[in-house]
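Data card: per-record layout.
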Amino acid sequence: MVHATKPIMLKARLLYTAKILFHVLGEFGYNPIKMVVSILELPLYIYQLTSFSIRSKSPVKIRLFPYLTDRRDFAGSISRHYFHQDLWAARKVYENKPENHIDVGSRIDGFVAHLLTFRTVEVLDVRKMTSSVKGMTFRQVNLMEFQKVPGSVCDSLSCLHALEHFGLGRYGDPIDPEGHIKGLKSLTKMLKSGGTLLLSVPTGKERIEFNGHRIFSVTTILNLTTSDYDLVSFSYIDDTNTLYENVDTSFVPTMLYGCGLYELKKK
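The structure for this 267-residue chain is written out next.
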């Protein structure tokens, strides 16, 4: 493990603490940053509305539907972890060309959407899904119930930013401190020998931030998987949201809230 410099870790810790604070405020419907920015942008909105109304010669009625903060946004945003993670995993599936790929709990509007551009995919999740998408089949499953999980049903499996939630109750699943271990056993049961598991989890100092997620050390994930899998490749996303691919696990820097990307082959 490579240690990050103190200024970098201090900055990451302050930003992460602020993120937690704003998240908690947001859970109660309060976003102080957005409120301040909206107040600052209101005069410009009124000016632009007045200017547009005066100059418009169209008979179309104007109704108010203000977006006050979008003007300050960049042309595109890269969401923390998910953007890099989803592309990383989708490329792996595309390169491997498996016969049957199943996804567990990953983003429908990210990774799964990427897959649907070139193949069909089966999705499993503890939550309900009411919409249907061409090329995707869905089943509601609790992977902590090992006995209900079918065995050796696919040669490719993905679980991206999902395993860390198992057993914390955040998504309606039952409370179980060993939920992540049970979930991993179910993933292993589903995968055929020689099949590929694409796994991503938050990475950093080992802890539980209830009921949001668990954060795992690289060593913990390697220990949990070594008896059933060979590590094909390891990549990670650091605290600056930078992706590093095909890295030796011995040289992963200290991170507060990074993301480990594991390509594993079942023995």
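Known properties of this structure: The two ends are 26 Å apart (CA to CA). The chain has two domains: 32-72, 82-266.

See the next section for split statistics.
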